[in-house]
From TrEMBL:
Gene Ontology BP annotations: carbohydrate metabolic process; glycoprotein catabolic process
Residue stretches making up the Glycosyl hydrolase family domain: 1-162
Pfam families linked to this entry: Glyco_hydro_92 (PF07971)
Originating species: Phocaeicola dorei
PANTHER family attached to this UniProt entry: PEPTIDE N-GLYCANASE PNGASE -RELATED (PTHR12143), SECRETED PROTEIN (PTHR12143:SF39)
Name under which the protein is recorded: Glycosyl hydrolase family 92 domain-containing protein
GO cellular component: cytosol
């Protein structure tokens, strides 16, 4: 998969309809949105963190063309929201969200019954895109995913971020 993200895209070679290239990965092609998260599933979460941070920082901005491709039914926007929270539904029916890299220092999700789920990821520097450690409700958390059920219970998911990958 490494070469998928590093071999350069050559315009006109295959399909100029795609956009948002990182190597051969075309972020503008919504069916491939999960690909950067597959590293975490394969035991190399630092690569997921590297590429998700790169995609979010380089392919999204607040201009009129602030995302690659078109926002079919909100897919590009939804990818960004999940990415910014630090997790993504690689398999949407599994009830699990694969951990990526949170890009917000704090986000609060309002849940039913006045519960909230809070994500905290304070940073000292913008280049701190790698996860050093996590806690869920004050307890050390080492899984590469969080369940929908855990989110819906409410609580706090805390990330300690660093500039160096934790290989």
């Amino acid at each position: 998969m490494d070469t998928f993200f590093t071999v350069s895209y050559q315009s006109g070679a295959l399909n100029d309809n795609a956009s948002g290239f990182v190597g051969q990965y075309a972020h503008g092609n919504e069916p491939s949105h999960h690909v950067a998260y597959l590293y975490a599933c394969a035991g190399e979460p630092w690569k997921t963190q590297k590429y998700v941070a790169y995609i979010m920082n380089e392919l999204y901005n607040d201009s009129s063309s602030g995302y690659a491709g078109n926002d079919d039914c909100g897919e590009m926007s939804a990818w960004y929201v999940f990415g910014a929270l630090g997790f993504y539904p690689v398999n949407p029916v599994s009830g699990e969200y694969v951990i990526g890299t949170p890009m917000l220092e704090e986000a609060v999700i309002q849940l039913p019954d006045r519960k909230t789920f809070t994500v905290k990821a304070p940073r000292k520097e913008d280049n701190e895109v790698y996860i050093c450690s996590m806690k869920l409700n004050g307890e050390k958390y080492t899984k590469n995913y969080i369940t929908h059920q855990d989110i819906m219970k409410g609580g706090i998911l805390e990330f300690v971020m660093t500039a160096s990958p934790g290989k």
